[in-house]
Write a structure and sequence with these properties.
The protein is an all-alpha fold and 171 residues long. Helices cover 78% and strands 0% of the residues. Helix 1 packs antiparallel against helix 2 and helix 2 runs antiparallel to helix 3.
Length: 171
């Protein structure tokens, strides 16, 4: 067993543990913290795959921005705290059977996957390769994405102004 394998096992266990913990804790802040553990461990897996750019984006975007947006969204909305009954044994067995079937199909898909030849230049300058590919082959989808984000931002501002005007008119 080499160090890369041990790091993979540790990061995979943290990612799975964070996901399971997020589903089982009851406080929202604890859910967010376990989600951050999952996001950071996935970034570590990207580093093991020599995808440093994707790992950096994972930490910056998901572990930082998305988590903060989720936390603010949850904290700024009103919640109706209601007790939910725990699922019965039949429902739990059905859920487990569904998860097992999904895992089996996923395993078969990965097991029969054939990539052909190995990519030799994958580990060399991958950030540069992403940049060159993004701004040469995919420049139009990249620019369309920025226009869509701009339209969404303008729409959010218009909706916020409309709500402010309605509240001012109601008073």
């Amino acid at each position: 067993m080499n160090g890369e394998f041990i790091a993979f096992i540790a990061l995979a266990l943290v990612a799975i543990g964070g996901g399971v913990l997020m589903l089982n804790v009851t406080k929202v802040v604890h859910m967010i913290v376990s989600l951050v553990f999952t996001f950071i461990s996935i970034a570590g897996l990207y580093v093991l795959l020599s995808a440093e750019f994707i790992a950096g984006v994972q930490v910056l975007i998901y572990s930082g921005a998305i988590t903060i947006i989720m936390l603010f969204g949850i904290m700024l909305t009103k919640h109706q705290d209601q007790e939910q009954s725990s699922p019965g044994i039949a429902k739990r067995l059905l859920i487990f059977a569904g998860i097992a079937a999904f895992a089996f199909v996923f395993y078969l898909g990965i097991y029969q996957l054939d990539f052909g030849t190995e990519a030799e230049a994958l580990h060399e300058n991958n950030t540069e390769q992403i940049g060159v590919s993004l701004f040469t082959e995919y420049v139009i989808p990249f620019e369309l994405t920025s226009v869509i984000l701009l339209v969404a931002l303008i729409g959010a501002i218009v909706l916020a102004k409309r709500d402010d005007q309605e509240e001012a008119n109601d008073k």
